[in-house]
Amino acid sequence: MKSIRNTDLKPLWLAIILVWAGTACSSEDPTEVNEEELITTVNMTFTNTAMASDVVNVSFRDLDGPGGSNPVIDDLTLSANASYTYTLEFLNEQETPADNITAEVRAEGVDHQVFLIKGGNADFTTTYGDQDTNGNPIGLLGTVTTGAAGNGALSIVLVHKPNKSATGVANGNISGAGGEEDIRVQFTLSIQ
């Protein structure tokens, strides 16, 4: 009978230790966690570029967040054939004091874009007035130019991680943007 010597087991033990060490110490790259911010309030201000006294403020407020009570949404009325600068503000009013999400959207501009989408017979065009560090639009401010009188809607959509290089996205076309919607609100719009 052949005896097993200690030196014959060394390769076996070495293989077992290497397999164990390789599986026990596996490191996975941590995945980035982006907690969605709760946005309860969207404030929008329009200022007529030809008449500074023509200032229109509208708000969307859903203080209990999605579900629950219906949001309170102002109607929007703009003058026909006019040009307005606009500014947007996003808040979480469940916090005290209110958490201003706008500053975060601006700071993380490469990861956010606001889209202004017209609906119905609303005749207007939009132009972005701000850019991220890559020269792509953010949309927290810009210009709205109205056309003929009519009724319709203005939707505001804040998108997280849009594909800003997709066709038309830099011009406000949301169809190729992808990403995830942080919030979508719709104002009833009357152009008079």
What does this protein structure show overall?
The protein has 192 residues and is mostly beta strands. It has one domain (41-191). The protein contains 2 helices and 11 strands. It has helices spanning 6-24, 101-107, and strands spanning 41-48, 55-61, 72-73, 76-78, 83-92, 99-100, 112-120, 124-128, 141-146, 150-160, 180-191. The strands form 2 sheets. Strands 1, 2, 3, 5, 6, 8 and 9 form a 7-stranded antiparallel beta sheet that branches. The chain has a 4-stranded mixed beta sheet with strand order 4-11-10-7, with no helix packed on it. The longest helix is centred in the first third of the chain and has 19 residues, at 6-24. The model is unreliable at 23-27 and 29-34 (pLDDT under 50).
Chain-wise SSE layout:
Layout lengths: L5 H19 L16 E8 L6 E7 L10 E2 L2 E3 L4 E10 L6 E2 H7 L4 E9 L3 E5 L12 E6 L3 E11 L19 E12 L1
Parallel strand pairs: 4-11
Antiparallel strand pairs: 1-2, 1-5, 2-3, 5-6, 5-9, 7-10, 8-9, 10-11
Cα(first) to Cα(last) distance is: 106 Å
The low-pLDDT segments are 23-27, 29-34
| Overall pLDDT confidence | 88
The total domain count is 1
Question: Roughly how much helix do the residues carry, as a percent range?
Answer: 10-25%
Beta fraction: 35-45%
Largest sheet: 7 strands, antiparallel
